[in-house]
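ugh ok fine here u go
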Amino acid sequence: MCLVYEVTKYRTFVVIEVAEHLAEHKPEQIDYNNVSGCTYYSPEIASVGYTEKAAKDAGYEIKVGKFPFIASGKASASGATEGFVKVIYDAKYGEFRGGPMIGNNVTEMIAEAVTARKLETTGHEILNAIHPHPTMSEALKEATAVAYGEATDPIRVSLRLNSSPFKLLHPNFTRHFISVQPLLHHTFDH
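structure:
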């Protein structure tokens, strides 16, 4: 079923391209390396662009980042902690080269990666885009932060280290956070 869907999606794009050509429009060439591959199973698998090996074989110096869903608040809350997002960037220009994803709803999340590749987005542009939190889709940004050495979330780091997140923060963090909680609820209730 998943193969039929992917072929149908691709065929639809080709039919549109042929129709535009016959109407003497200037159809955009298909970038076959930017056609997503999706497997609709449990867990879902999605990928676009280069694999790590293919990028190296193509001569790119690369930056690679991987973010496991076990470190995602949304994944933990929904019980979908299996899987990860992996990103591959060109080290010289920062252009997003591709990557695989495995886990719940990654066949939905791959759209951001396809769009980022289409627009020749850089890692810094992904990092500077404000992603909603907590969401599964922010895993792309988190994987990018790992690739660029900017993954600094102390709570997630502490979860991996099996220690208290508050040891990594300012000693007054707990007191300040607790005092802000009623204010946050009041702000969003109105």
